[in-house]
TrEMBL record:
Native source species: Sphingomonas glacialis
Superkingdom field: Bacteria
The protein's name: Tryptophan halogenase
One Pfam family matching this protein: Trp_halogenase
InterPro entries in UniProt: FAD/NAD-bd_sf, Flavin-dep_Halogenase_NPB, Flavin_halogenase, Trp_halogen
């Protein structure tokens, strides 16, 4: 059977790959390209998916909302839980912990961001840890959860949350959504890729002899990069000199009594371990540098750090942090792991799938592709990747740990963009953000402070408040947060009431 592109028929898009990336792309096309397009998705059960990717950031809500997914039904279908931030344990040094919580920290006053007052109060000895001034942080540590505006909404900000979920179940949820809206799923393995005289992909040959042509191909084949790399030889920017971890071992464990509404990341001798609580189990994994730790040592470290019985054999995964030189090359757009790999420290990969899809929807080509559209897509993708990379490097760079891996991370030359950001902060506590950057000033603030990078000075306007008033201002925020958190249900009760999986 041959399905080829017909210049008088609908525009054909073929997605290769049915992991998180493939089904997120399919669901978006199903929702927004109702007429004039024909969408096929090819996936191979025999090849399978990478099977990890359980923690998200609050932007996932925009994606689910755009599809019109009901939050409770989505959480029930994916064994999902809430995530208010990420706790970093032992990153600065053993025994130290801090949280990168979502949402605001304190309240900005006049021209100045809150942290300028906090920096001054620190010097006066009247400041508490940043955690006290973040509603999300206090709620997370107390194991509480609430939706909607704070009770004292006039004074306190909203409590943004993201989700932990089973990525396989999320893909299944999106598959149901996509298939009922006209996406055709084809089970099969692509065994040959043909190009036309210009070099564009023309047809895919499946193992059963089926031939598929399209105007646009979305490569969601994971680390393989079947179209973008194996066929188009696009090339890869390797960032392992900045982010040297190149392996992970993942294992699920039984659900723990510590049903935390946050991800935990614990630094280890040559990497770090994640802990992600879902409704039916806890997801765990160790990310590490194979130059500093053997696979056996990594497995032993992982298993020793579980807070419940392992439910399966540990599964190894290899990767190389970096990105494709072009995410959109010829008539192929790489989305997901085929486009690049960012280690999951700040749970950004699913977000990057979502933003790549949004970018593609904005620049969606018809039957002819303008080079300027590809260039713009690639420029925006590069910018996003590089700025997220910088944020992740900061966690590794600013540490006081003694192991060789951590010394190496501390001493590695930084990307210029990150070095400039650190210098600006170290001086008088300034943080700037270009508008396309993912992480906000408050994200950078919490990681700078959490990793022990404290500026020499602060903005002189922060000196305008009398010291006693400043102390009272900070205490009031802390107390309001604590009062708000005290009336919230526990995370476990919240899930049981609204979205417990059957
Ligand atoms: P895959 O899931 O690998 O899917 C590839 C698809 O392509 C499969 O369906 C496969 O069958 C198909 N395929 C491949 N070749 C062929 C062929 N020849 N013919 C037909 N079909 C083919 N992200 C987060 O946001 N949060 C996290 O907490 C997180 N943790 C992670 C931890 C680790 C250790 C790793 C490695 C990644 C993590 N990620 C995380 C990233 C996340 O897992 C991925 O971004 C996400 O799963 C998307 O994967 P994918 O769909 O690109 O690839």
């Amino acid at each position: 059977m041959a399905t080829l592109s017909d210049p008088t028929g609908p525009i054909r898009i073929v997605i290769v790959g049915g992991g998180t990336a493939g089904w997120m792309a399919a669901a978006t096309f199903a929702r927004f390209l109702e007429t004039g397009f024909e969408i096929d998705l090819i996936e191979s059960e025999e090849i399978g998916t990478v099977g990890v990717g359980e923690a998200t950031i609050p932007q996932i809500r925009l994606f689910n909302d755009a599809l019109g997914l009901d939050e409770d039904a989505f959480l029930r279908a994916t064994q999902g839980t809430y995530k208010l931030g990420i706790e970093f344990v032992d990153w600065l040094r053993a025994g130290h912990r801090y949280m990168h919580a979502f949402g605001a920290v304190g309240r900005d006053v006049g021209l100045l961001p809150f942290h300028q007052y906090w920096l001054r109060a620190q010097k006066l000895g009247s400041a508490r840890d940043l955690a006290a001034y973040s509603l999300n942080n206090q709620a997370a540590l107390a194991g509480r959860m609430q939706r909607g505006p704070a009770r004292t909404a006039r004074v306190l900000p909203d409590m943004p949350s993201a989700f932990h979920f089973d990525a396989g179940l999320y893909a299944r949820h999106l598959r149901r959504y996509s298939e009922t809206r006209g996406v055709t799923r084809i089970e099969g393995k692509v065994v040959r890729v043909d190009q036309d005289e210009r070099g564009d992909i023309s047809t895919l040959l499946l193992e059963d002899g089926t031939t598929l042509g399209a105007d646009l191909f979305i490569d969601c084949t994971g680390f393989r990069g079947l179209l973008i790399e194996q066929t188009l030889k696009t090339g890869y920017d390797d960032w392992t000199h900045w982010l040297p971890a190149d392996r992970a071992i993942a294992v699920p464990s039984e659900r723990s009594t510590a049903f935390t509404p946050y991800t935990r990341s614990t630094a280890k001798a040559a990497g770090w371990q994640w802990r992600i609580p879902l409704q039916h189990r806890t997801g765990n994994g160790l990310v590490y540098s194979s130059a500093h730790l053997s696979d056996d040592e990594a497995t032993a470290t992982l298993l020793a750090g579980l807070d419940g019985e392992a439910l399966a054999d540990p599964r190894p995964i290899q990767f190389r942090t970096g990105k494709r030189r072009q995410m959109w090359n010829r008539n192929v757009v790489a989305i997901g792991l085929s486009g690049g790999f960012m280690e999951p420290l700040e749970s950004t990969s699913i977000h990057m799938i979502q933003s790549a899809i949004a970018r593609l929807m904005k620049l969606l080509p018809g039957r002819t592709i303008a080079q300027a559209d590809r260039d713009e897509f690639n420029r925006q993708s590069d910018f996003e990747y590089e700025r997220i990379r910088d944020f992740i490097i900061l966690h590794y760079h600013a540490n006081d740990r003694s192991e060789p891996f951590w010394q190496m991370c501390r001493e590695a030359t930084l990307p210029e963009t990150l070095a400039a950001k650190i210098d600006l902060w170290r001086g008088n506590g300034h943080i700037t953000r270009e508008h396309e950057e993912l992480f906000t000033e408050v994200g950078w603030l919490q990681v700078f402070a959490g990793q022990g990078v404290i500026p020499a000075g602060h903005h002189p306007l922060a000196d305008a408040i009398p010291a006693a008033d400043l102390a009272e201002f900070l205490d009031t925020i802390d107390q309001l947060n604590a009062r708000e958190v005290a009336q919230m249900p526990s995370h476990a009760d919240f899930i049981a009431r609204h979205c417990a999986a059957p």
